[in-house]
Specification:
11 helices, 6-stranded mixed β-sheet, nucleotide-binding, Rossmann fold, alpha/beta, 4-stranded antiparallel β-sheet, ACT-like_dom_sf, ATP-binding
Amino acid sequence: MIRIEGLRKTFPTRGGPVTAVDGVDLTVAEGQVFGVVGRSGAGKSTLLRCVNLLERPDEGRVTVAGVELTGLPERHLRRARQDIGMIHQHFALLHSRTAAGNVSFALEVMGVPRRKRAARVEELLDLVDLTDRADAYPAQLSGGQKQRVGIARALASRPRLLLSDEATSALDPDTTGAILTLLRDLTRRLGLTILLITHEMDVVKRLCDAVAVMRDGRFVESGPVADLVNRPDSQLARDLFPLGPVPTMPDHVLVDVTLTGRAGDDVVATLARRHDLDVRIVAGAVEQLAATRAGRLRLALPEAAPGLAGALHDLRGAGLTVEAAR
C-alpha cells in the first residue's frame, strides 16, 4: 500500500538547514495499521505530510497503492489524494458548519452532487455513531464527537489509506479508548490501511500491527510489534512495558523476561515447581496488544539456588527473551 524510498526533507532556518526526515525507507502492507513513534521534533509529522505530498520531499520516492505520487503533476496529484484520508490532532472542523455540514464540505470540494452528498453524509455519520448529532455545531460536541466527525470527513472519498496525525492526543483516556476501538473496527469493515504518528504507547498497544521508532529524522527500530517486543535491545519494549528502576536485592539475580503470545503462561509457577525456586515477581505486566499478547516481568531468583542455571535455561528454551535487569 505504501512504499517510501530514501525520503529526505530539509527546512531552512536562521541557524542553517535542518533535516527533518533523513533517508527514511518504509513499507506498509495493505490492511496494516502502522505506527510511527518518537519524541517531539523527531520528524514524525513531516514524514506523514510527505506521504500525501502536503510537504514535497527533497529526495526520495513515495508510492501509494501502486501510484508514485512524487512523479505526478499537480493536477493528477489532486485526484490521487482522494485515495488518502487525513485525521488531524485538533479536529480542524469548520465552526460555522454542523457535524453534517463538515462532512458534506469534503464532498463539495470533490464536486459530488447535492443529492448524493446527503446520502453519503448520512451513511458516514452512521458509520461513526453520530447520526443523532448531525445538526450539532462543533462548539456543542465533545472532543470525542469532534474527532468522530473528523474521521467521517476523512472517509468521505472512500479512501484506501488513512493518515492519522496524533488523532487521540487531545482526548482523555476513556475517549481515546473509544476512538481507537472505532479505528480498529473501521480497518476491518472497510479494509483500510492506517499510517499514524503518536507519542502515546497506549495507541501502539491497542491499534498497531507494526511500528517504527523515529529519532532525529531516522528510524532506529522498525517491524511488527511482536518482533520488536522480543528483541533484547528494543527501546520500544521498554517503553511499552516499563519496569521501573532496578531494586537492590542482595543474594538475588534479577532478570527481565519478555512474553509474547501464550509463551510464558504460568512461568513463575512452573519455575518454582520444576526447580524448587522461590521466584519473586518484582514488577511487570502482560496485556493483549492489537496483534498479539505480550508483556514483561522482572523476576528475582535466589543467587545460590542449585536450580538457577536450569531455570534460566528453561526460560530461554520456552522461547522467552531473558536479559539481566537494567
